[in-house]
Design brief:
By secondary structure, this protein is an all-alpha fold. It is 68% helix and 0% strand. The protein has one domain. Helix 1 runs antiparallel to helix 3, helix 2 crosses helix 4 and helix 4 runs antiparallel to helix 6. It is globular, with a radius of gyration of 17 Å.
Amino acid sequence: MRSPIALSDLPARIATGLYILNSGLSKRDVPEDAAAGVHGFATSAYPFLGSIPAGQFVKNLSRAEIALGSALLVPVVPTGLVAGALAGFSGGMVGLYLRGPGMRKPGSLAWSEQGQAIAKDVWMLGIAGTLLLESLRRRRDAR
């Protein structure tokens, strides 16, 4: 029986999984004012999130990050599946960077000082793309 992941997937899955898991764990018990800040930033890029109370939004975000980080770290979760979830999550982060006020220098994709913390997360989208493409290639080669 073929393994759901390849040995070459492990470095990217472990590094990304630990990063996202830590981020989710750090949001478990944030004070209400911090939750309001995270929520306010998210709603600046995605206005539809405004209908969710700030505390609930951050709890849901924390749970999603813990679930995604854990899935990346558990080697029985197929790479294609977890890479798709990572692509969705990281795409959302890139959207925050592109849409969030003050994240980029005016008229440029280059990050501003405030945007640097999110701009660096574009690596997750690259990792997701690589894992997805490799998973598809392995599936094709197995046929």
